[in-house]
Each structure stands twice: as structure tokens, then as C-alpha cells.
From TrEMBL:
This is PQQ-dependent sugar dehydrogenase. Residues 221-334 form the Glucose/Sorbosone dehydrogenase domain. InterPro entries: 6-blade_b-propeller_TolB-like, Glc/Sorbosone_DH, Quinoprot_gluc/sorb_DH_b-prop. Residues 29-44 have a biased composition (Low complexity). It comes from the Bacteria. It holds the Pfam family GSDH. Residues 24-65 are annotated as: Disordered.
């Protein structure tokens, strides 16, 4: 598969052979390539922003002691309880639960997959695999899948054999090489297929195959399908329990100011849709740096925008029976929190109230207290959910390497 993408420059570039871009875009000099030696996140920053102090919030990649994990500051609705469930797992992100009760969790910056064991009284963890490039996990029918930017591994029979040796599936999945926005979130769908996003290799650029898209595969890596395009960076998705439609979060681009473009909550009513990147963002905002006529024509706009630079991550429909009836099939979204904004935004978990078709979507706070708006200081960054058999819900915190348990007392 041919891989091409182009940074936005002042030159009249031609990107040939790109089926997604039938109209040659107009290009702006405002969002050029990354300066030599500069980090990738600076791409798209204008000359006027060259002295901006804004930069990604560094993760804490050493174990955080419990007395520095401020669960007492967290607020949940009446009747709910949130407590520290496990800690000592720096950089923890998305989680998957095996049939034997063990939980596996990927990371980004630290390159580990953790295995977490619950003996009923306490949780312990070990590094299951290490030194991978931003690995994510998924579990399906006794098999653990681990996918990094440049590697795909399968651990068969993991329930019975926690020391199972991996089967290398990298060649089958044909993983593209670019790192920027290429860290993974994996999930098996109701159809039994493995869904894998491939984010844009830039902040803002013209993209061709295989980036800015969502794919699905058979569990053995065969039968690859591109089911959606124009997706800048989705880090979470789930299927509506009633309709079976896929909903996903997507990050808006950086360096267009404090207030936008906002992150997105999207609904995929069918396969083959285009969600706009790089030409169209949020509720129909044409990109000022990558331009073409009628930029938002044919684009599927979001069900709801989720706030400026919010870093929307995990998305989970609640299927349990512990929470009150009004939470059944409700959608939870973790907003990890902004960096490309002078005043922080996000750093919370929200519930989105909407009908199955996405009408009248309303954002309702669910877990707050990771950030103090008065001082603009944060201490935690919520990222992913895992529903437990008893109906409680686990929530991971990448910043302090912890997992919280959210329960409801009838």
C-alpha cells in the first residue's frame, strides 16, 4: 500500500493519486512543516505563535504513592462512590478483562502492558510485556491482542497460561510507520472483528492511505476493511447497545486558538462515511490552512462537540445493572484535558444524554475534581473505562498510574 502525506506549506504542492481528495486544495503558509529538531506537536504552529509557552502536559512515568492520589477531591453524583482500586502502574491507559478476571492495560509513553490481579482484598500488578512502542490491548475468546505502532502480538490461551509466548502478527496487519497520532485503541466489535484506528501523522496536513481512518480486521488479521475516513485521532469507541451503531471520540486540531476547533463525539450510521479531516472540523468549521471549496460538503458532522482541546478519550455505554435505571445505555466519555489552551479545559468524566439517533445530545458532569479551575492546576487525567461483572465501572488515570472503582449504593 502506498503511503503519502504532505505538510501544509506555502508552495503549490500536488498530491497525486489520492482518491479522497478529488479537488486540489488551496494551501496556506501558516501551518508549515515541523522545524528541524522540533517536536512533532509544534507542526501547524504559526510564526506568530513561535514563542507560545503551550506544550503537551508531561505524564508522570514513575509510580505515584497513594497519598498523592487525591481521590478525596473527586466528586460524583449522589449515591455514587469513587475509590482508589489499584495504583503503581505509571502511564496506564485502556484496559481489557480476561475471562479469568485478570485485567490487562496498555500505556503510551512508558511502553508497557500491565497485568493486574485482584485477590478480593487487594490488587497487584506486574509488567506483562515491556519496551514496546505505545502498546494497546484487546481481549477476545481467551486470546490477548497487543498492538503497538510497529508490532502486533497475539497471546493465545492467556487465561490458563499467564506466561504464554506471543505470536507475532505484525506482517499480517501491515502497520504504517508514522508515530504521530498513531498510538492505538483496540476493541472487538459485536461482529467479532478487531477495530483499529490509524490517526493523522500530523497536527494538520493532507493525508492519503493509510492514515486518518478506522479499519476493522478478522481476528487473524485478514479481511481488512477501511470503514471510515477523515478521522484525525480517535482514542475511544463503543457500539450502542440498542442500535449496534459505532460511536467514537475524535480530537480537534491544535494551534487555532483557545476556543477551537472543539473535539467531537461522532456516530457512524453506516460504513464508508467521511468525518472531515483535514478540511472540515467540529460543527462545520473549514480549516484555514488546508483549504478547498465547500470544505464541509459530504462530511458527517458530529452528534455533539465536546469542548476545545478537551482530549476526549474513552467512550463507554453503560450496560450494567448496578447504576440507577436512567444510566442504562448511557454514554460516558473521559476528557483527559487540554494542553493547547491558555486555561485548562476537560480533566473530567461526563455523561452524554441523547437518543439512539444522536438528537438533543446533552453533556452532564459525572466525575469532577481532577483539576481546580480557580488555580488552573490539575493532578489527574482520566482516560478509559472498564465495566465489571458486578455492574461497577473502573476508570484509569494516566497521570498518576491509578485505577478508580465507581459504584452505586442502592
Amino acid at each position: 500500500m502506498r503511503t503519502t502525506y504532505a505538510w501544509v506549506t506555502s508552495a503549490a504542492l500536488v498530491l497525486a493519486g489520492c482518491a479522497q481528495q478529488p479537488v486540489q486544495p488551496q494551501l496556506s503558509p501558516q501551518a508549515g512543516p515541523v522545524p528541524a529538531g522540533a517536536p512533532a506537536w509544534q507542526q501547524g504552529r504559526s510564526a506568530a505563535q513561535a514563542t507560545s509557552p503551550l506544550a503537551p502536559v508531561p505524564g508522570r512515568l514513575t509510580a505515584t504513592p497513594p497519598n498523592e492520589i487525591h481521590v478525596d477531591r473527586l466528586k460524583v453524583p449522589p449515591g455514587f462512590r469513587i475509590e482508589l482500586w489499584a495504583h503503581g502502574m505509571p502511564g496506564i491507559r485502556a484496559m481489557a478483562r480476561a475471562d479469568n478476571g485478570k485485567i490487562y492495560a496498555g500505556t503510551r509513553g512508558i511502553g508497557r502492558v500491565y497485568e493486574i490481579t485482584d485477590n478480593g482484598r487487594e490488587r497487584t500488578s506486574r509488567v506483562f510485556v515491556d519496551k514496546l512502542n505505545q502498546p494497546a490491548v484487546a481481549y477476545n475468546k481467551g486470546t490477548l491482542y497487543v498492538m503497538a505502532i510497529d508490532k502486533a502480538l497475539r497471546y493465545d490461551g492467556i487465561d490458563a497460561n499467564p506466561n504464554a509466548q506471543p505470536v507475532d502478527m505484525t506482517a499480517v496487519f501491515k502497520l504504517p510507520p508514522e508515530q504521530h497520532h498513531n498510538w492505538k485503541y483496540l476493541r472487538f466489535g459485536p461482529d467479532g472483528k478487531l477495530y483499529v484506528p490509524f490517526g493523522a501523522p500530523c497536527n494538520i496536513c493532507m493525508v492519503d492511505e493509510p492514515y486518518a481512518q478506522l479499519r476493522r480486521y478478522n481476528p487473524d488479521g485478514s479481511g481488512m476493511e477501511v470503514i471510515a475516513r477523515g478521522i484525525r485521532n480517535t482514542q475511544g469507541f463503543d457500539w450502542h447497545p440498542a442500535t449496534g451503531e459505532l460511536w467514537f471520540t475524535d480530537h480537534g486540531r491544535d494551534w487555532l486558538g483557545d476556543d477551537g476547533p472543539e473535539d467531537e463525539l461522532n456516530r457512524m450510521s453506516r460504513t464508508g462515511l467521511n468525518f472531515g479531516f483535514p478540511y472540515c472540523h467540529a460543527n462545520g468549521i473549514a480549516d484555514p490552512d488546508v483549504r478547498k471549496p465547500n470544505a464541509c460538503d459530504g462530511v458527517t458532522l458530529p452528534v455533539r462537540t465536546m469542548g476545545p482541546h478537551a482530549a476526549v478519550m474513552g467512550l463507554e455505554f453503560y450496560r450494567g445493572n448496578m447504576f440507577p435505571p436512567e444510566y442504562r445505555n448511557a454514554m460516558f466519555v473521559a476528557r483527559k484535558g487540554s494542553w493547547n489552551r491558555t486555561k485548562k479545559f476537560g480533566y473530567d468524566v461526563v455523561m452524554v444524554k441523547t437518543d439512539p439517533a444522536g438528537r438533543s445530545a446533552e453533556i452532564v458532569p459525572f466525575v469532577t475534581g481532577f483539576m481546580d479551575p480557580a488555580t488552573d492546576q490539575m493532578w489527574g487525567r482520566p482516560v478509559y473505562f472498564l465495566q465489571m461483572p458486578d455492574g461497577s465501572m473502573l476508570l484509569s488515570d494516566e497521570q498518576v498510574g491509578a485505577i478508580y472503582r465507581i459504584s452505586y449504593a442502592r
